[in-house]
Amino acid sequence: MRISEKPVAARLKELEVELKPGVSLSEKTSLGIGGTTDELLLRRFDTIPEVMRLLANEKISYRFLGGGTNVLVDDGELPWIVLHLPTSQPGMRVEGNAAYVDAAADLGGMVTFCAKHDLGGMEGLIGVPGSVGGALRMNAGAYGTQIGSYVREVELYRAASGEIETVRGNDIRFDYRHTSFAPDDVMLRVKLELPSNPFKEILAGIKVCNEKRRTSQPLNQKSAGCIFKNPPGGSAGRMIDELGLKGHRAGDARVSDRHANFFINAGSASCADMLRLIDDVRERVHKSFGVELENEVILWKN
Ligand code: EPU
After folding, report:
1. What is the 231 CA–ligand 1 centroid distance (Å)?
2. Which of 125, 214, 226, 278 to mutate to test the pocket of ligand 1 (most atoms within 8 A of CB)?
3. pLDDT digits over 109-129, tens only?
4. Under DSSP, is residue 278 helix (H, G, I), strand (E, B) or coil?
5. What are the φ and ψ backbone dihedral angles of 188, each rounded to 5 degrees?
6. N or C: which terminus of the chain carries fewer CB neighbours within 10 A?
């Protein structure tokens, strides 16, 4: 969707919103897949309610893009624009056992920053790619750690009220790769409470997790992490592997040889290729194991 020629563009500029026309989302997502649209960079939180009102009045659809590491975006010209909180110098500070972090911050960067202030607990999250906002929304987790355990407060833009609100950690449900945030809530900032631990010990934990991840996951290839959620008590990766599907492909979309729940863009895969592969693997798993796998990756299709 193109809005640079519309009158709303001038008003957005007054609100210090930067409009980037014709951005290819294949360059903004870790899968390297996605069509083209205009992007808005929202530099000031306080203008977000006004920006949202403007977009609603003009009937301009939008999606919020965080780190782009867990989305599968449709091909071609997209019928919505993308909003993004700029990631240069996101706020992070520590006060006692509390860490205050902007949602635009890199998740791994936040773990390291806290570690340097002798605050641990999140070692398992170190290699999870993406932004803090995305991690909050999905309750990102790995190696026994889930970000939700440490959340004390979230500042967010609530589309339902049109206001910026602060929600207490106790009022948010954090489940396995799922939270009680509304789909159109926009994460802005979080307050975490973390256990004290000397930097050296946290670093040792970080190294162990990095090593486990390096040996079991295809880190240097284009992926969105795990494609499917694990079914209760089971492992999607193990089931797909047992069916001999490593290397199985649809166009340039391919099941990783290293971890069968990672699907790779091995060249110039399209969203359609990736969806064909997802459906094919889901069907085969269902046929053999009677288990209906649920997507972990978020699909942005019209
Ligand atoms: N396995 C295989 N073959 C494979 C992959 C895995 O046999 O191709 C086996 C492993 O040997 C192991 C079991 O399956 O016995 C589980 O594998 P792994 O330890 O890699 O964990 P996972 O359940 O596949 C989950 C998360 C990952 C997270 C790791 C580490 C989900 C869907 N996946 O993977 O998260 O990094 O544990 O904690 O919950 C993600 O969310 O995108 C993600 C990658």
Report:
1. 12
2. 226
3. 999 999 999 999 999 999 999
4. helix
5. -120, -45
6. C
